[in-house]
Amino acid sequence: xxxxxxxxxxxxxxxxxxxxxxxxxxxxxxxxxxxxxxxxxxxxxxxxxxxxxxxxxxxxxxxxxxxxxxxxxxxxxxxxxxxxxxxxxxxxxxxxxxxxxxxxxxxxxxxxxxxxxxxxxxxxxxxxxxxxxxxxxxxxxxxxxxxxxxxxxxxxxxxxxxxxxxxxxxxxxxxxxxxxxxxxxxxxxxxxxxxxxxxxxxxxxxxxxxxxxxxxxxxxxxxxxxxxxxxxxxxxxxxxxxxxxxxxxxxxxxxxxxxxxxxxxxxxxxxxxxxxxxxxxxxxxxxxxxxxxxxxxxxxxxxxxxxxxxxxxxxxxxxxxxxxxxxxxxxxxxxxxxxxxxxxxxxxxxxxxxxxxxxxxxxxxxxxxxxxxxxxxxxxxxxxxxxxxxxxxxxxxxxxxxxxxxxxxxxxxxxxxxxxxxxxxxxxxxxxxxxxxxxxxxxxxxxxxxxxxxx
Amino acid sequence: xxxxxxxxxxxxxxxxxxxxxxxxxxxxxxxxxxxxxxxxxxxxxxxxxxxxxxxxxxxxxxxxxxxxxxxxxxxxxxxxxxxxxxxxxxxxxxxxxxxxxxxxxxxxxxxx
Lengths: 455, 112
Hints:
The complex is a heterodimer. By secondary structure, chain A is an alpha+beta fold. Chain A has 2 domains: 3-115 and 153-309, no CATH class; 319-434, Alpha-Beta Plaits (2-Layer Sandwich), CATH 3.30.70. Chain A is 29% helix and 25% strand. In chain A, the strands form 3 sheets. In chain A, strands 11-12-8-7-1-2-3-6-4-19 form a 10-stranded mixed β-sheet, with helices on both faces. In chain A, strands 5, 14, 15, 16, 17 and 18 form a 6-stranded antiparallel β-sheet that branches. Chain A has a 3-stranded antiparallel β-sheet with strand order 9-10-13, covered by helices on one side. Chain B has a 4-stranded antiparallel β-sheet. Chain B is built from 3 helices and 6 strands, in the order βββααββαβ. Chain B has one domain (4-111). The two termini of chain B are 16 Å apart. Chain B is of the alpha+beta class. Chain B is elongated.
């Protein structure tokens, strides 16, 4: 019976740079999924691309390619990634450049384009697509001048198409995380566009894999039971044509794969469990059956799904003012009282200077005294030290920068025992806020383009 | 009538949390089918609202996922604006699962 081994070596932008290499070297895999895009990463890439037309993709991925390409070519391990960002063709050109440096050829790279909607926003809004914010209900039009990126989440079909064309590496922009797994499965097994149960199974497989080590013992409640977390093996799914699959990891790695670790990942970032909506299918998490079939092997079966919706999700970002945060450590006797006084001093000095912030736009946290989970965990009454963290946001950058100048004076003009002020004055940073919306899928699907080129 | 014991949720369940916009999601997974029944009975929307009173300013939604012995909670308006806009240290609700496990609940003594 044919099984396809799909691994995930990068759960998010900033994940372990060595994990994908260990997956390639630690045992057999057929596909490697790599996620580089957080919700607002595309906004950063848009700025890079505006400055330099050859930029706008995840440069970390090129570092990975430089290390991994010889083995990918030799072992025919195929990589599916959203590292293409806003400029997948430039990313491909860079990969070919690296290949030439390394003396490698005889492979193809696929590019999926058509998710970038920034240039199309005036047309879409003009034709009556309101792109209302899915959380607040506001229409986009009044904010359109602040928008810095707008991309549609695309599904598994174009990924499969690039693989059908022989691509060893598939570069996408804003593809769903789950499509990094479902795309290869559609390519391998030829699952039909309305084979909802199998598409749901592949989607849930992608959901389990998409956060890397979170399926194999990372971020696990009973952390003390996880062996050798320092060398945790990233997850691998062995998928059958039926859609059933086994979650596992390479031998001789740390971490563990149990019904508990997989269950925890299944409920991560879950909304309505009966309706997990993706561009490809609506998956039903209440249909999943989990069985421990061996050490570090969990079988996932029974998955059902329903038809996809007529919409695709849009992920836009817009500039929404500025923010800054600064912190000092307050040590010695009566640390809590001194930290509270220090905070009061900062806010009063700013007020005297005519700089005030709305209640919701300033934060005082005493880290070490239940700042993160207030009202839940009892705070120590007399800790030897606390970290005072202050943060503000405002539409006026000058106000935010002025706040940043009021932290350092606490060291000499505040209570005693204030230290740990390092890294210079906090400066106002742009707040790039997230704008989720829905758009009729045909608007995007008719302009998707897949191109596969060989070197 | 069985004797009831008061224990933290961490005795009978796992949890993991993350963000969905300005809501946090807290998934709670029971360690056994019997404990799942306890979760369904004890960990009500109202209990969760009170437990997170200093964190969650909006509605609490609860979904049952019996096949995974799990409950999923959405805590709306719980992240100070969410994602990049939030000023909070835990802008993504990563710790809310750990916080949930501190809730004290009644469990039939013979189950422990």
